[in-house]
């Protein structure tokens, strides 16, 4: 009788959870699956529910479920290898399963006694579990209530990325893992880790200890935005905080983070910037610049005029040594070599760079940048990896196998796809999550500029209409970028990136014709209870949107 009473109570609660607006049932799933049917019944999950796993050991995937249950509901489920005689259960069905299979497809079928997750790969099972977790009721009830559904699901794009700049501001190993947790929740599969820049070098390289001893530190940091005098020089009135700033990841930290991401089926793509955005490295090893220095790690925002010298052979040996360590830490297919915003002024007057231009019969400094990237590409290819770089690597000619990240609009991506090079779209509008998300700037933390509200992120189509079907195949997907000049804490990283990353996740997962911003917003309102429970400092502008 008590159980029946409880069931009635929980049914009412479940109905409330599933019917937030206009009596219509809403499943709080983000990204929304490609095919969903609700059957109207409910599954009651509690500590007696079993996980049935008949074939391969899927410990990482099962852990993602049990860790969530332990953290937020204070129990874990027992894993058994046969269907139990009584009680309900979660059956993991491994159809045509192969641990080497990279398919992300899964099915999730829930009836009142059985939850069935079927997939042919570990990643598919993981995705099914992430969807299941988003279906859990949040309210404190005797059982976790799960609506009965039939879901068939797979992603639309293969590169669903989020970036984080850990150079301008440093985020701890635990914070980076938390960021990876957010990515996993939304089924992102790439974490682009921006590890080096003018303002800080954040990755331990054993052969060059000064990179972290010197390059990971800056003596102080500009407060607010940089200003310039009438000659274009830094204003004397700019204020600095006077506080030394620093931090880096040891190779052990990096291995731990990469393993953590891998357990959540997220590939970590490291970015080692060259030839520009390299002042922190040059503060440590000025001999690889054109002038020989000395330099200090940048304390201002913006880009330094001092960059790697493209004329000196030693510069290439230095970078090759660094990359030979980097590739051992990151199992990713791609290494990001930056390539953006390289100020080429020093190259114009450097005897070594000019000799290189003459010897290689290059037309100008743009072709010198192309020489630089092509040479680094050859080296990285020899290590069994591919390069990806910002769209400036198109200037002066694209390296033969390079993929392009299109950030200055979509033109670079379009040009690269037409040349049959793979592309990741990250146009500033709407993929830069360091831009404002509200027009009421006074109510927002200082941001770099721009205006990228959540609805513009949601409506983004990564495949430009101008591409024909064959060219469109080169668009691997898109990525949200979180540059941190004005983002000082991890809490602010969350505020800038969540829920815009949820909107991007759905844009990348769901076919364009299935997207619906109004429905997404309704789902997000319910889903935000999960974010509350997780303690995420998400931005709440969507709450006010109709
Ligand atoms: C960039 O935002 N400089 C890639
Ligand atoms: Zn030079």
The shape, in one word, is globular
- Using only C-alpha atoms, the radius of gyration works out to 25 Å
What is the SS-derived class?
alpha/beta
User: β content, as a range?
Assistant: 15-25%
- List each distinct ligand once: acetamide, zinc ion
Q: N-to-C terminal Cα separation, in Å?
A: 43 Å
Oligomeric state: single chain
CATH superfamily of the largest domain: Glycosidases
Helix content: 25-40%
Count of the separate structural domains: 2
CATH topology of the largest domain: TIM Barrel
Compute the average pLDDT: 94
Count of DSSP strands:
19
Low-confidence stretches: 1-23
Folded structure, characterized:
This protein has 546 residues and is an alpha/beta fold. It has 19 helices and 19 strands. The model is unreliable at 1-23 (pLDDT under 50). The radius of gyration is 25 Å and the shape is globular. Strand 2 (50-53), helix 2 (59-73) and strand 3 (78-80) form a beta-alpha-beta unit. Bound molecules: acetamide and zinc ion. Zinc ion is lined by residues 290, 309-311, 347, 350, 352-353. Acetamide (ACM) is lined by residues 340-341, 390, 407.
